[in-house]
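User: Can you write out an input/output pair for a complex, sequences first and structure second?

Assistant: Here is one pair. Inputs:
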Amino acid sequence: MSLAAPLKKEKKKLIKPKQIEVQKIMKPVKDIKKLQATIEVQDLSVSFIQYTKGLQQKDLKVISSLNIDIHPGEILAVVGSSGSGKSLLAHAILGILPSNATVTGKITYKGEPLTSKRQEKLRGKEIALVPQSVNYLDPLMRVGKQVRTAVKDGDPIKAQREVFSRYYLKPEVENLFPFQLSGGMARRVLVSTAVVSGAQLIIADEPTPGLDTASVKEALKCFRELADHGAAVMLISHDIETALKIADRIAVFYAGTTVEVAPVEDFKGKGEGLRHPYSKALWGALPQNDFMPIAGFQPLPSALPPGCLFEPRCSMVTPDCSKAQPEARTLRNGMVRCIHAT
Amino acid sequence: MLLKGENIGFRYGKGPWVLKERDITVESGEIVGIMGPSGCGKTTLGRILAGYEKPHEGRVILNEAPLPKKGYNPVQLVFQHPEKAVNGRWHMKDTLNEGWEPNDEVLEALGIEKAWLKRWPNELSGGELQRFCVARALGLQTRFLVADEMTTMLDAITQAQIWHVVLDVAKKQDIGIIVVSHEKHLINRLCDRVIDLSPVKVS
C-alpha cells in the first residue's frame, strides 16, 4: 500500500467540514487569588559552570533569587530586555537546562515540589511550551499529524480537527508541511499543540515578534482563551505593549531577577503607579510615552554589582543601595525589590 | 538631495510580484516610515533602495544618478538581526571601522565602551551589537539610512537610546531616514510621513 493512501481517505472525509462546538475544558475562573497557585517559584538561582583557562572553572550566576507565582486562569507576562534571564526561567521550570547548569531554590507545581522526575513526567502533558518559531516543528511531518501526537486521551484526529477549526485553520492545513505555513498559521499550529495536550501551565516564549498587528492580536487571543478556561499562562516577551494587551500581572525582569511584579492596571499614564525605578524607566522609554532613554546597560552576569542590580543606572541611588541586594517585599498589591520604592 | 525609486517592480524567482509600479521619494533630512502587513514587500523595498537587490522593473536614483557600484554606499542599511550582519571572525573593532572610523563622540553617544572593541561578536548581546551596526552605518558620506526593523528585537530603553543618537546624527549630517517597522507607535513618534505598503494584487 502506498503511503499516500491513508491521507486520501482522510481527505475524502474532509469534504464536508463541520464547525464543531468546542466544549469548555474547565469553568471560567472568577476569583484567582483564592485558588492554589499552579506554579510558584521561590528564590530561584541558576548558574552555569564555565571553563575560563585550562581546567579552571568559573561559576556564572545568570538568575539570582527570583520569585514568581501564577494562578489558574491568570496570565503572567514576563518582560525584560534580552539577557535578563526570561527564557532561562522557562527552561528551568521545564527542566531542560543544559547539564552544566546548577539550579537552587524552590519550584512548586500545584503545591508539590517540582523535582526533575516530576518535570519529566509533566512536561508536554500538564506543562507545555509554545516555542518561539516554526523551527520547532518537525519539518518532515505534516502539521496535523504533529498536533495529534500531543493528544493524550481521546481520539487524536477529532481533537486535532476541533482545535484547528477553533483557531480558524482550514481543514486543508493539516496536510501541509511546516514550510508551507505563513508565520501566523505556524503560530496557531504551535498553540494548537499546547491546547490539545490539555496543559494546565502554558509557557509561551516570545510568541509574537515578526508578526503583523492582526496576527499578534490573534495569537494573543488564543492565550487569553486558554487562561479563561482555567490554565495558567506565562507569556515571555521583551515587548511591554504585547504584554499589556492580555496579561493580568506583569513581572519585570532585570539582570536575572524580578525587580517588580505589578498588576497590569499600574502600567498607565506616566507610570506613577509603578514601584521600581527600572520599570518606570522602561515605561517612559516607550515611543508612545516619553521615548526617553536612561544611560548605561544591563550588567553582564560576570560583572554584577554587589548591591542592588540597578544601582549603577538608578536616579534615586543612595549609599545604602550598594550594600546588599534588596529583599523582595510586598507593596500595594505587587512585589518590588527596591529600598526606596513607595 | 533626493533618493528616488521609480516604478519599481520586483519578484523572487518566478513567484508573484512582491512590488509592482511602486514609486517612492525621500528627501535629505526627512524621516519616512514604511508600514504594512507581513510579506507585503517592506524589507524588499528597503533592500532595493540600498542597492542590495536590483529591481526587475524601474530604477533607483540618488541625486539624479544611479547608486554608485563601487566604494562607500551613501544609502546604508541596518538590519533587524545584528548578529547576522557582523562577521563572526572579526574583532568588533574591525567591524566598526569597516566603512569609516567613527569618532569618539559617536561611540560615546551610542554607549559603545572601549573594552568592547577587542571582543568577538558572540561575546556581546544583541543590543550591544546593534549599536556597532548603527555606528558603522552613520559614516560622514552616508546620505540615507534604511532602518529595517532596527530596534524590534530590543527592549524599550535600548530602543530609545539608539534612536536618539540616530536622530541626532541625522540632523547634523542632513541624513534622510527610511524606517521600516511594524510598530505603529514608533513610526508615529519618529516619522514625518508614512507610506502604507498594502499588498498589490497583480497575478
